[in-house]
Amino acid sequence: MKLANAGIKTLPRHVAIIMDGNGTWAKKRGLPRNFGHRQGARALKNVVLFASKIGIKYLTVFAFSTENWSRPREEVDYLMKLPAEFMRANETDIHKHNIRFACIGDRSRLPEDLQKTIDKYEKETAENDGMIFIVALNYGGKADIIQAVNRVIDEGVAEVDEEKFERYLYTKDMPDVDLLIRTSGQKRISNFLLWKLSYSELYFTKTLWPDFNKTQFLKALKEYSNRDRRYGGIK
Ligand code: FPP
After folding, report:
1. In the 8-state DSSP scheme, what is residue 179?
2. CATH number for position 92
């Protein structure tokens, strides 16, 4: 795949995605919401493998927010089942692509079997040195900052600067997000990676997440590569 032929000159190192629109996708077809999530997991598989193939180094996806617990029980249960199913179904491909798996968020509230599966896949893929695929589960940007502050206090640290503080965040091992993609037409951050999004380029598309594919991804990357990043400076 020649990225230059697709008009892509520079690749973002870290892409984050808010995978929105699963429910709408299902509703449009008269199907239960969980069918939309299942289809969303299929779209995710293709995006993960494609991102790894073209050389994205970090891909972080929002799979369950600290606010998603307020959804109907049946939907929450399904969303708690999907990540482990996803890992099991795609284990071979993930290893073949040399992808490392990681999870961010407060794991203590996740079902125990999911916690075990996460630990297992983090350990089993720890030596893979290709793309790092990060799933945010029971994650909230504000909750992340608060847990970091509390740990700073617990450790009796008197003062922090940005660099020191970052080390307490769930996101400590990743660079700032270069490109945030949100599907389904909403233009919000929705309490995702607040700290790491401070200078990200934002890309919004009306495409519903289950319909998001390679072509859509390349379109987002092309737009990113044409953006003029200034980080508060001047050109
Ligand atoms: C938001 O769409 C989507 C979610 C809260 C869940 C995202 C989960 C997946 C894509 C499943 C795959 C994840 C893994 C890690 C295997 P929505 O349901 O709020 O859509 P709506 O706004 O159309 O109702």
Report:
1. E
2. 3.40.1180.10
